[in-house]
């Protein structure tokens, strides 16, 4: 199960290039993102450009701010095969995944990170995806997939998700793009260190 | 492969430069690199706690404990399980018998097997000792101290900055470790990012310019190969800020393209992994939140600034060195300031600095590149009626004492505080000849400049009482000597309630390249 709420940018206001003040599931901590439709045209990623196979109708972008940041706190499952007992036995692995990109040869970018925290908020593990440089997407408008896996450290209780869009150079549009953000947990027969 | 110091030094002599045989330059494995590093004077604590222990961000009931498991400190990847359980203990005695807190924390490969333990429930104003245990081994024992509460008659702390590994040994940190201080404030340039410098240096960087997370991890580990740095960390709790070289020279934290943002994130993460930094709450890695306000009883309010993460480019009409949110936070603090000494930990020079009369600013990477914001902030300080402001600064590799004025070009603008810019731990300053020539020129060009001395290296000790702030410039005899003795070059005082510093009569005759008040 994907623990990210609205990681596909499909919920809440948006649909065009206008920045929005709030995003379902996320706290906007800096700037203002735009949740843009793949059908908007104008050089933005389209259904034909590289991106997730099941991309829905919208993706995240950085809006018009030089830096736009969104935060989401995820409470890890209390019970079950990926619950606290399993986490504390080093028996839960995470996979963080995101499709990240930008516009043509520009170096605007999007970064998605997952910080696992204990009950007091202290970081215990970190996965950082992106930003994807223009060369990594062959200077082509679109999004490419990035993933990271690891063991959820014992005593992890929450995960803080941070989605950051950065604009390089001039212009007004922050063309860091993101879609299909996910965080999944799986049980495995891991050995305690 | 067995390397010994004699062979290495012989090879160095043959090559004409020590850096030619410095670790990894000949494609050594991490283990061989460590062996070579140790043969050339670096050393590490026993594995896996090779990088030592540290504590930081002391508060009345809490400090953060730090260590990192790195059996092969110069390896990009450690041969360790993905998760290693690390046990920690805090006690009232150095033998760790009278235990007051203990626990277990997971060291994850995703954070370089570093651990950060915020210990709570401690008593204010007390020394504690701590240690770690993992993989059947014990770390060295560190000592820390909590912040006091209520009425405080004295605080004594060290401020250090700019410790280029290749420019010398850390005799200054050896001195700090032996000082009777409550805490250490590091003002940045903890590491340098560039490759080997060559030439006549006591040691050198072991790899080309660092760019990736693995690179930055190895660079931090190299710097912690100086025993005096580890000793200073183990002796006192540290507060921390950073300057540019933790990432790259003169960078702006905003506005870069994706390749730079990848690099910045790697550098920030590696910094976090190697520092006793408390990160939680509203921030999230890989963007640690540095700026914070800390109190030492009723005597000192320490405002730690981050002048890198949020700054714009230099020399813009609407440029910012603080960023909007930090500036707003700083302004709120001015309004809520208590009756105490107000100290800003400021990585890079606040005061205006022209190179010669009628000349331009020497460096616009410092606050001189953010004129509108500096004037706005200092005018707010004045308008708020904030008294007893002392700004402590690094970056310049030389000592300055400046009056702080809201408008540096207007000599009728009131003096609202003092800035002490400290000598560097090791990072190279200008030549003695340059200092001799330019000290008086800078003095003539900057009426607010009281003092300049650029021929020495060391750190500052700030000794603060309810009546007086005293800054002792502690200098080492020789950067090339790891056990160089420490002496006090001079001392400046600021009296409570009176803006402006004056030099101690007993040291006013010491060497300097400029003094305004003779």
Oligomer: heterodimer
* Helical content band of chain A: under 10%
Radius of gyration of chain A: 17 Å
Largest sheet of chain B: 10 strands, mixed
In terms of structural class, how would the helical and strand content of chain B be classed?
A: alpha+beta
In spatial order, strands of the major sheet of chain A run 1-4-9-6-7
Organism (chain B): Streptomyces zagrosensis
Region (Disordered) (chain B): 499-518
InterPro entries (chain B): Metallo-depent_PP-like (IPR029052), PhoD-like_MPP (IPR018946), PhoD-like_sf (IPR038607), PhoD_N (IPR032093), Phospholipid_Metab_Enz (IPR052900), TAT_signal (IPR006311), TAT_signal_bac_arc (IPR019546)
Domain PhoD-like phosphatase metallophosphatase (chain B): 157-472
Topology:
The complex is a heterodimer of chains A (193) and B (518).
Chain A (H helix, E strand, L loop, with lengths): L26 E4 L3 E4 L20 E4 L5 E9 L8 H5 L3 E11 L6 E9 L5 E7 L12 E10 L6 E9 L10 E11 L6
Antiparallel strand pairs in A: 1-4, 2-3, 3-10, 4-9, 5-8, 5-10, 6-7, 6-9
Chain B lengths: L4 H11 L14 H10 L13 E7 L2 E7 L14 E9 L7 E10 L5 E6 L7 E8 L2 E2 L3 E4 L9 E6 L10 H8 L4 E4 L26 H11 L3 H9 L1 E4 L17 H16 L18 E5 L3 E5 L19 H13 L4 E6 L24 H13 L5 E5 L5 E6 L12 E5 L10 H14 L3 E5 L4 E7 L3 E9 L9 E10 L5 E3 L10 E2 L3
Parallel strand pairs in B: 1-11, 9-10, 10-11, 13-14, 14-15, 15-17
Antiparallel strand pairs in B: 1-2, 2-5, 3-4, 3-6, 6-7, 6-8, 9-19, 12-13, 16-17, 16-18, 18-23, 19-20, 20-21, 21-22
Structural account:
The complex is a heterodimer of chains A (193) and B (518). The mean pLDDT of chain A is 96. In chain A, strands 1-4-9-6-7 form a 5-stranded antiparallel sheet, with no helix packed on it. In chain A, strands 2-3-10-5-8 form a 5-stranded antiparallel sheet, with no helix packed on it. Chain A is elongated. Chain A has one domain: Galactose-binding domain-like (Jelly Rolls), CATH 2.60.120. Chain A is mainly beta and 193 residues long. Chain A is built from 1 helix and 10 strands, in the order ββββαββββββ. Chain B is of the alpha+beta class. Chain B folds into 3 domains: 5-39, no CATH class; 45-149 and 190-233 and 250-278, Sandwich (Immunoglobulin-like); 155-188 and 290-515, 4-Layer Sandwich (Purple Acid Phosphatase, chain A, domain 2), CATH 3.60.21.70. In chain B, 20% of the residues lie in helices and 26% in strands. Chain B is built from 9 helices and 23 strands. Chain B has helices at residues 5-15, 30-39, 171-178, 213-223, 227-235, 258-273, 324-336, 371-383, 432-445; strands spanning 53-59, 62-68, 83-91, 99-108, 114-119, 127-134, 137-138, 142-145, 155-160, 183-186, 237-240, 292-296, 300-304, 341-346, 389-393, 399-404, 417-421, 449-453, 458-464, 468-476, 486-495, 501-503, 514-515. In chain B, the strands form 3 sheets. A 10-stranded mixed sheet of chain B has the order 5-2-1-11-10-9-19-20-21-22. In chain B, strands 12-13-14-15-17-16-18-23 form an 8-stranded mixed sheet. In chain B, helix 3 runs parallel beside helix 5 (227-235) and helix 4 (213-223) packs parallel to helix 6. The longest helix of chain B has 16 residues, at 258-273. The radius of gyration of chain B is 22 Å and the shape is globular. At the A-B interface, strand 6, strand 7 and strand 9 of A face strand 3, strand 4, strand 5 and helix 6 of B.
